[in-house]
Amino acid sequence: NAGVTQTPKFQVLKTGQSMTLQCAQDMNHNSMYWYRQDPGMGLRLIYYSASEGTTDKGEVPNGYNVSRLNKREFSLRLESAAPSQTSVYFCASKRTSGVGVLAQYFGPGTRLLVL
Amino acid sequence: DAKTTQPPSMDCAEGRAANLPCNHSTISGNEYVYWYRQIHSQGPQYIIHGLKNNETNEMASLIITEDRKSSTLILPHATLRDTAVYYCIVRVDQGGSEKLVFGKGMKLTVNP
Question: Does residue B42 sit at the A interface (CB-CB below 8 Å)?
Answer without folding.
Answer: yes
